[in-house]
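Much of the work behind modern protein science is quiet bookkeeping, done one molecule at a time. The protein below has been through that process, and both of its lines are reproduced in full.


***
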Amino acid sequence: MQARAALIAIKAVHTVIWVVLSAVIYYLLYAVIADRIDRWFWMGLGLVGLEIIALLLFRLSCPLTVGWLEVPRTDGARSDRSPRQGVAKQGYWN
């Protein structure tokens, strides 16, 4: 049950980050269109910059993927939680 709780926590954190960054990107678009370049704009731009740095450090992969793949599966199989690995398991690229 610990593995399930860990996966739920990782998914929740990922969802929160995704929602916040999506809102920030929409705000940046609004700020540019409405010509409202204020401190919120620069803070949002900084958050997007941090996301870019994190993606570059993790070779264009979500940093949470590392934690996601470390959680053991209950059936003992290799993790196939990544969409790319799931498709590869189906034999699409094999």
Summary: The chain has a mean pLDDT of 79. DSSP finds four helices and no strands in the chain. Residues 88 and 94 are 7 Å apart (CA to CA).
